[in-house]
Design goal:
single chain, 258 residues, alpha/beta, 5-stranded parallel beta sheet, 11 helices, binds iron/sulfur cluster
Length: 258
């Protein structure tokens, strides 16, 4: 009987810290089963071996910050049957999207001795702003169980079963006392689930590293923050972290900047 050809996986990096690619390697217990089911054909973080495309599944980490990357992502899309973006950089522009609220040339002049050699874009943007994307997985970094679910869904040709509710749902299912009752601002009500409410479990407010949940009520949360005495300037800062350029967080931060 003819052996079934394994689907080819490629893992790509754009502007990022590599943390989401490390989440693939963090799969540890599942990695051997994964390698048995899928042909890891291109993954610079893990191996110097590289095979040519096309690829059945591309996992894309990182945001678009240079003209060269804007060109390269189109080539990656062309080579990929399915393209999934992983992490806050790839789905929202990442922490580097803070440049979108300022003048990037000013940063260049402070950081580099010869900024004339740097070729960069004025903004950091999500992969979906440049090419069609089949699925976006949020997180900074992504959660490895959700990542496994996305890869498994791809292998079984079904839609990934990744919850679209907020961190609050995970927080309540862990039986946590809400940190907001002690006046600690928490973005849990508007943040996508996936971490198991890690920070509130240790009495810290959520700072939104999984990005906006589906249909977040940003204004309502800001009213609750104000009532708890959070100053207006902090409302800008609270929404400008890992997912500063995610449309819901960006709009809310700009509303408080006026
Ligand atoms: S989303 Fe976070 S962990 Fe992932 S590559 Fe970007 S900065 Fe790193
Ligand atoms: S601590 Fe944060 S995540 Fe938990 S219930 Fe309160 S607001 Fe929601
Ligand atoms: S609680 Fe919020 S900040 Fe903490 S890990 Fe989860 S999503 Fe990220």
């Amino acid at each position: 009987m003819a052996r079934r050809v394994k689907p080819k996986l490629a893992v790509w990096k754009f502007a990022s810290c590599d943390g989401c690619q490390l989440s693939v390697l963090d799969l540890e217990d599942e990695l051997l089963s994964l390698a048995a089911a899928i042909d890891i054909a291109y993954f610079k973080e893990a191996t110097s071996l590289e095979r040519e495309g096309p690829f059945d599944l591309s996992l894309v980490e990182g945001s678009i910050t240079t003209p060269a990357d804007a060109e390269r992502i189109r080539e990656v899309r062309r080579l990929s049957k399915s393209l999934v973006t992983i992490g806050a950089c790839a789905t929202a522009g990442g922490i580097q999207a803070l440049r979108n609220f300022a003048d990037v040339r000013e940063f260049l002049s402070v950081v580099y001795a010869s900024p004339a050699y740097i070729e960069t874009l004025a903004t950091s943007t999500a992969i979906a702003d440049h090419v069609p994307v089949d699925f976006e997985l949020r997180g900074c970094p992504v959660d490895k169980r959700q990542l496994l679910e996305v890869i498994s869904a791809f292998l079984h040709e079904r839609r990934p079963n990744v919850a679209s509710h907020s961190v609050c749902v995970e927080c309540k299912s862990r039986g946590n006392v809400c940190v907001m009752v002690t006046g600690t601002p928490c973005l849990g009500p508007v943040t996508h689930a996936g971490c198991g409410a890690l920070c509130p479990t240790y009495q810290r407010g959520c700072y939104g590293c999984f990005g906006p949940m589906e249909a977040p009520n940003m204004e309502s949360l800001s009213r609750a923050f104000r009532a708890a005495g959070v100053p207006e300037r902090d409302l800008v800062r609270l929404h400008r972290t890992f997912n500063a350029n995610a449309p819901a967080f960006r709009a809310e931060s700009e509303r408080h900047e006026r």
